[in-house]
Batch of 3 targets.
Target 1
Amino acid sequence: MSELGRKSVEEFKQAAKSPIVIVLDNIRSVYNVGSIFRTADAFLVEAICICGYSPTPEHKQMAKTALGATDTVDWLHYTNSVEAVQALQQNGYTVFAIEQADESISLEQFDVAAYNKIAVVFGNEVEGVQTEVINACNGCIEIPQLGTKHSLNVATAAGVILWKLVEHQLKNN
């Protein structure tokens, strides 16, 4: 890992994080949650809020996809996603559901620089982000899609969104 210039767990914990928090709204698959942890590690995300029945890192099968990222990325558990959204807003985060909804902002039009601290909510693999969670958010971001399908796997969507949110940081380094 040192040849690749990768951080140790301790270096990761001490590193300045991207001002981004992920909220997982009733994600069913432990593998999707593990994959999102790994992506959060890759982009130095501040934390993940695991909500509802989404699996937490104690689940033994998460290690298959997280590959140690549950040791680096901070996480909190909330019984419901609205509670997490409200807590984040009280701490200065602007919260966006990643969802196809009326008045969604298309990802390529989203101005990341307009926000100091961002939280993004990813929804259930079948149902998406719950309506009451969308209503609690400051807005929605939609990933444009050009094919016949109307959705992406939640872990894939997280990778696309997180890349967009940190891209400007990488260009400025």
Target 2
Amino acid sequence: MKLDVIKLDGKKAGSVDLGEDIFGLDPRADILHRVVRWQRNKAQQGTHKVKTRSETSYSTKKIYRQKGTGGARHGDRNAPIFRKGGIYKGPTPRSHAHDLPKKFRKLGLRHALSAKVKEGNLVVLDAATAEGKTGALAKQIAGLGWKRALIIDGAELDAGFARAAANIDGLDVLPSKGANVYDILRRDTLVITKAGLEALEARLK
């Protein structure tokens, strides 16, 4: 599968061959869903917490005598049955992460890349370099018509380009090792540099 390579000014800079085993798959929603769910659950903080009866601030004195009152027997006011008492079996800090095989995660990334190719939203960029000026880069991005885009570069990001792109709304820049299914799917346009293509193909072989 051949795709044209462009520069940031919109001019053509040759073409590249995309591997069918990475960019030519028939995307499956169930695979993408499982990988995105794994990513989001792993990122969830899990810091929700309630106080149990041993942590609420109240007297631990027995509220009235055990027998002879005609009412139910009680200990202190921290019991879950009372207002402002401790919570029974409430949420506690925990990890929401679950396991997903590495082979399946790689498969999910292949399907995400193939989905962008099938939609016609994959762009190959010659190189992601800039002088560090946000205004100049923003004009180039607007000229290319990228409103919500993710740019994946090689192993290292160009410092000037990363600095210029930092304040552009709707533009994300990642090194190849940071490429993931969730970020690819949440942006309308996927832009991969030639260096990024080589790194991704090496990673997914």
Target 3
Amino acid sequence: MMPMQQLREQMAEQDPEYRRLLEEHSKRARRLDELTRKGWLTTEEDQEEKRLKKEKLQLKDQMEARLRSRSK
């Protein structure tokens, strides 16, 4: 069985849908980092932060599901 990190890298190279999910996940992570560095958030930014966290988690779940189906 292939180590998970190696499988993730292989999926990112070979699976366009996995790569798309990874890119979307990364975009949300970068935006969350921006908001975190800001320190004080407006009400809208606070709502955006909560939405981004949920979306990021959903994307991670989708990526992990693709990994599980591939590693079987």
